[in-house]
Amino acid sequence: MPRPRVDAAGAQVDPVTRGMRPMPERWTEMARSRTVFSLSLVLAIALVALVVGVVGGRATSSGSAGGGGGSGGAASGQKIDVIIRANDSAFWLTMLAGGEKAGQDFGIQIGKFGPTSETNIDEQVQLVENSVSRGVKGIVISPGSNTALNSSIDAARKAGIKVIVADNKVTTPVDGFIGTNNVTAGEMAGRRMCDLLTEKGKTSGKVFIESSVAGIQVLLDRDTGFRSGLAEKCPNVNATLESYNNNDIGTAASQVNDAISANPDLVGVFADNNSSGVGAATAIQDNNAADRLPVVAFDSDPKENAALAAGTIDALIVQNPFFFGYQGVIEAAMATQGGIPPASIDPGAVIADKDNMNDPDVKALLEPPTAQAGG
Asked: pTM of the entire structure?
């Protein structure tokens, strides 16, 4: 099968779930990304799933909040838990909504769980152990650490549970991974920052990186990509200043305020997740700096979207956590029936700004549904 591509103008590619009718069209928009990814693998999983009957039959979007309302095939009635990284983030609650919708569409019983915050790794480990005790057939998880959940994931797989990981990879074997190539997405952010600085006539100075948690691979990848993308056409802009806020918006705002005060040659701010983005926008507003300090941030939530509309954030690198949850459940269900999910799927990322944020495809990503945790 030829490898489909997205052209430089951002031409749309086929939806990730072509042939899998129940997934709402607007939630496949991230598959029409402006970055290239291996769509052939995604099409392959859709075809295999239909062949083995995992998602056979016309499913329905009705059903209970916990899933199980569809008329799926062999995997119908299976229990799959979706474990997100934090219940205090709209981004992760959107991943729950994706898993919930897949459960409704294909008759799968979905448990929805998550720790209180992203720093509660021990709580997430306990949630995996709870899933094993309940005897679920599959787990879809966005791990808060690359290594801390290895033992619990190993135990789950030893018990015959299929494990699909989303967003942040672990260093132990799993049955599949779904997540954005964060180096590539970070490069997109760096290039956009360079464009914004060039528009303001800035060819040198410092960009401050506001990050949430030290040592998390997805954030390291974003920051590395950002520096690389920035350096392509803005080589004299320094992006070595960086602080970590432990996913606390108030701390992020204080750190950006300090960076503005301490660095008269500061020319921009990059925030590598939604909490960091909201904190950065708050500091920009407090300092009346929107006209002179561009901000590029990752992800989206209502506060980030409001900042984008107000101009205290100039661009958002938007992922599709709904897809993480939806496709994760499909892959886990497929694996329970002997199917082999692709090792890795990258749904890509989209740049949202004030000019395109109300376009239907972009707005669908900025304002996705959410779901609450609960068994």
From this structure: 0.81
CB 44 within 8 Å of CB 38: no
Domain count, the chain: 2
Domain, as residue range, for 172: 25-180+320-348
H/E stretch holding 242 reads: strand 242-244
- Greatest extent of the chain over all pairs of C-alpha atoms, in Å: 63
Cβ(26)–Cβ(37) below 8 Å: no
Nearest Cα to Cα of residue 96 among 302, 346, 322? 322
HSE at residue 309, side-chain half, CA atoms within 13 A, is: 11
- Where do runs of H (alpha helix) occur along the chain? 39-52, 90-106, 121-134, 150-158, 182-199, 217-233, 249-262, 274-286, 302-310, 321-336, 360-366
Do 209 and 158 sit in the same domain of this protein? no
Q: Residues 126, 73: one domain?
A: yes
Query: Strand 205-211 and strand 266-271: pairing?
Result: parallel
Paired tokens of 140: 């879809």
Least confident of 23-32, 224-233, 333-342: 23-32
Instruction: Work out the pLDDT band at 75, boundaries 50, 70, 90.
Output: confident
Q: Give the distance from CA 67 to its chain's centroid.
A: 22
